[in-house]
Amino acid sequence: MKMEAVQETTVLDMDATEMAEKIATQQITSLQATNIYISHLQKINPRVNCLVEERFEQARQEAQSADEQIAKDEARGRLFGVPISMKESFDVAGMITSGGIPARKDYIAKEDAEVVARIRAEGAIILGKTNTPVLCFCQETDNKLYGRTNNPWGLDRTVGGSSGGEGALIAAGGAAVGVGADIGGSLRFPSHFNGVIGFKTGNRQVSTQGAFPAMDHPLQDRMMGVGALAKSVRDARMINEIIAYTQPGKCLLDDFSVVIPQNTLKYPANPSTIKAIKSATQILSNHLPVTDEQPPYYQESTVLWQQAMSIGIPEFCQLANGGQPLNPLPEYLKERMFHSSDLHHYFTWVMFTANLVKPSNKQVQKMENTIREGDRKLAAYFNQRLLILPVYHCAAPAHGQVIKELFSLTLSYRRYLPFIAYANTWGLPSLIIPAAEDEHGLPIGLQIISRVGNEDAIFQMGEILEQKLRGYKRAKL
Fold first, then answer.
1. d(CA 403, CA 292)
2. How far apart are CA 373 and CA 104, in angstroms?
3. What's the burial of 118, exposed, middle or buried (CB within 10 Å: 0-12/13-18/19+)?
């Protein structure tokens, strides 16, 4: 490929691994790739609203410098010269970290989050930061500071959250790869709804230093994962290798069996999702033993997750309110009736409903005992097992529908959140593979889950499903 003949669509469809190789071998320049992404983002962002803060001029300067270093054979790093994007909740030196809160609209980070620093050390060029809900605290990406992010597969559809801006941007080909975080589906919902590869790391495998908001309670900290939203499994693996504290060991996939609940699924899944599960079962049955069963603590996980996330609600409300106490229900009603709150009504409604199930100190102690016991059982259960689960019961619904389903006074989260909550509650790594499309052409993802230490097996299985099923396709607006 001659540099002057590089096609925009070629760059937009490239994963980061291929782009790094072509930049390193001077088949394309970093500046060419950067300019193509910037032009593309300027075209799509008015409709999708995924990118909320850009650093285009700095990116161009860094790309020019990268090309000069490559010409001198001074390039170092697995992402050298590759343009990427970053979830708004990660500190990037010189950029705003607001968490979608108007009171933080002028907060400028002084240094990079550790994850950002590690990726930059590999030569990546950050184009900008992507939208999140308020405090990254719900599965719809909308806030009063930056507005709503729309799904590039259907602008009237949700992108999920909280890494919703990142999912939408990668789906539309706005960067080579992106980075998000996940404490309650925050990375996996956007991967599923937008049709991208996503990887949530396991319990305390990646630093959350410089991620906003900080999750200080141990029951919350253990549930947080950080990883790639990507166009390929190999990119998700590479990002994990860069940001993880330790490198995952090698696994022999032939030593594993696969659990795929079908008759034992229990929770709702629409026909398109069931069809995707059956397709995965058929493919994997050619490689490994497959059983249909419920894994341990399948039923209990969602309540444990919701109770853990309800710890510290008053403090989170105060943080969102610029340090002042906040009663979420009056603030919710104020916004719904008069549109006069600085906080989106999604956030205040989620805070109100979550506070209803806030555990007592005695309940927290009981939860801690249950989780200690569960950790031991699941470590043994997943020693040489991989679990396939849906992400949600359907493809991307209309804006607002996910919040109605997950946060109602009828505690409907117990019906709709089990697929997501399982990996968070137990601190399990999870890889999302776009597996199918529904009747409207909207993507459907499946999760591959196992214990910490089995990441290599997860990625190997992901590569099989990526090749045999839908995989990543760029949404073309």
1. 30
2. 40
3. middle
| Token duo for residue 280 | 């995965």
Q: Please name which of 225, 196, 197, 229 lies closest in space to residue 211, comparing C-alpha atoms.
A: 225
Q: How far is 163 from 381, CA to CA, in rounded Å?
A: 30
* Alpha-carbon span 426 to 312, nearest angstrom: 20
Q: Is 173 left (phi over 0), alpha (psi -120 to 50) or beta?
A: left
Give CA–CA dist 257/119, Å, rounded.
Answer: 34
Residues 356-401 have pLDDT tens digits of 999 999 999 999 999 999 999 999 999 999 999 999 999 999 999 9
Domain that holds residue 40: 3-257+391-468
Q: For residue 355, which of 367, 365, 347 has the smallest C-alpha distance?
A: 347
- Is 52 domain-assigned? yes
Q: Say if 349 falls within a structural domain.
A: no
Distance CA 351, CA 372 (A): 27
Token pair listed for 53: 């803060």
193, containing H or E segment: helix 188-194
The candidate with the shortest Cα–Cα distance to 175, out of 231, 244, 117, 238, is: 231
CATH no. for residue 63? 3.90.1300.10
Q: What is the pLDDT of residues 252-292, one digit of tens each?
A: 999 999 999 999 999 999 999 999 999 999 999 999 999 99
Instruction: Examine residue 315 and state whether it is found in any structural domain, yes or no.
Output: no
DSSP 316-368: HHHHHTTTS---HHHHHHHHHHH---SS-HHHHHHHHHHHTTPPPHHHHHHHH
Question: Residue 223 in contact with residue 308, Cβ under 8 Å?
Answer: yes
Q: Domain count of the chain?
A: 1
- CA 155 → CA 43, 80, 96, 148, 253, distances in Å? 15, 33, 26, 10, 40
Residue 225 lies in a domain: yes
pTM equals 0.97
**Residues 391, 432: Cα–Cα separation, whole Å:** 8
**Residue 108, phi then psi, degrees to nearest 5:** -110, 125
